[in-house]
TrEMBL record:
Pathway: Cofactor biosynthesis; iron-sulfur cluster biosynthesis. Homodimer. Interacts with ISCU (cytoplasmic form); this interaction stabilizes the (Fe-S) clusters on ISCU. Interacts with the CIA complex member CIAO1 (via LYR motif). Acts as a co-chaperone in iron-sulfur cluster assembly in mitochondria. Required for incorporation of iron-sulfur clusters into SDHB, the iron-sulfur protein subunit of succinate dehydrogenase that is involved in complex II of the mitochondrial electron transport chain. Recruited to SDHB by interaction with SDHAF1 which first binds SDHB and then recruits the iron-sulfur transfer complex formed by HSC20, HSPA9 and ISCU through direct binding to HSC20. Plays an essential role in hematopoiesis. Acts as a co-chaperone in iron-sulfur cluster assembly in the cytoplasm. Also mediates complex formation between components of the cytosolic iron-sulfur biogenesis pathway and the CIA targeting complex composed of CIAO1, DIPK1B/FAM69B and MMS19 by binding directly to the scaffold protein ISCU and to CIAO1. This facilitates iron-sulfur cluster insertion into a number of cytoplasmic and nuclear proteins including POLD1, ELP3, DPYD and PPAT. Transmembrane segments: none annotated. InterPro entries: DnaJ_domain, HscB, HscB_C_sf, HscB_oligo_C, J_dom_sf. One of its GO terms (cellular component) is mitochondrion. It comes from Mastacembelus armatus (zig-zag eel). This is Iron-sulfur cluster co-chaperone protein HscB. Belongs to the HscB family. It comes from the Eukaryota. Keywords: Chaperone, Cytoplasm, Metal-binding, Mitochondrion. Pfam families: HSCB_C. PANTHER family: IRON-SULFUR CLUSTER CO-CHAPERONE PROTEIN HSCB (PTHR14021).
């Protein structure tokens, strides 16, 4: 049966005016290994459409398998394993993300779209293990740092730079609660834009103004430090509340709390600047 016939069969099975899934892949270059992915289509509503389809083209072409998966995975992201070959020795690479080939030990190209949690080998949770994150970061940078590849080929130098940059970005994003929470919302299709005052309660904004005024008028390090301690306590409370909201799937509540955390994090930075003025 031709691929077009098989797609036609699938299109008769899935009849929904709300769902359109565009699958684009190249079938012209032969690949000796299979590529397996999990696909989710993202719609404006809370519905999640699961693709359950197997396409087996003729020999010397790649095989695409779409299969159903848990509905709790982040929207719009591919979560299945992608099996590829090493660019140099052509041996299969079974582990993702793949930093090095297990056969020839050569650095591999970075994989776009890979979750930062997966790159840093961390559980998908807001209250992740920071010590584990830092240990993983140091381990990866020791092996991927571009200085280690100064005598290697241009391709290896390029791949090491891209891998190292990706690890840096993943580490910095997951290190701080604010950027970590914003990233987790992004994986779920929600964004926190700049200038979020319009969606923030006026009572909260007034309280924030009072804190900023008190910090501006602080005459001693002790006064500024007290504001800093109060702010730190508030950030701790917000971290617990955000964790609870994300665990319960209350994304809009988590977003509102993250907006508050953004403001308090800004106050915390101002406190540091104020304390430096007393030195």
């Amino acid at each position: 049966m031709l691929i077009s016939d098989m797609l036609s069969v699938n299109s008769r099975i899935v009849r929904s005016s709300r769902a359109v899934l565009h699958l684009n892949w190249l079938m012209t270059e032969p690949l000796p290994v299979y590529k397996t992915v999990t696909c989710l289509a993202h719609f404006p509503s809370k519905d999640i459409w699961h693709s359950n389809m197997t396409l087996r083209p003729r020999s010397k072409t790649r095989e695409l398998i779409c299969y159903s998966n848990n509905a709790n995975v982040p929207r719009g992201y591919c979560t299945g394993q992608v099996k590829l070959n090493c660019w140099k020795c052509k041996q299969p690479i079974d582990k993702t993300p793949a930093f090095f080939c297990m056969s020839c030990k050569v650095v591999q190209p970075s994989e776009e779209g890979t979750s930062y949690f997966k790159i840093m080998d961390c559980d998908y949770t807001f209250t992740l293990d920071i010590q584990k994150l830092q240990k993983r970061y140091l381990q990866l940078q020791r092996s991927l740092h571009p200085d280690n590849f100064s005598q290697k080929s241009m391709k290896e130098q390029e791949y090491s730079e891209s891998q190292s940059a990706l690890v840096n970005k993943a580490y910095k994003t997951l290190l701080k609660p604010l950027s970590r929470g914003v990233y987790m919302l992004k994986l779920q299709g929600m964004h926190i834009e700049d200038g979020t005052e319009s969606g923030t309660e006026s009572e909260f904004l007034i309280k924030l103004m009072e804190i900023n005024e008190a910090l501006h008028e602080a005459q001693t390090p002790e006064e500024a430090n007290q504001i800093g301690q109060d702010t730190k306590g508030k950030l701790t409370d917000l971290t617990e509340q955000i964790d609870t909201a994300l665990r319960q799937g209350e994304l809009h509540a988590a977003k509102a709390l993250l907006v508050q955390m953004k403001y308090y994090a800004n106050v915390e930075e101002k406190v540091k600047k104020k304390l430096s003025e007393f030195m």
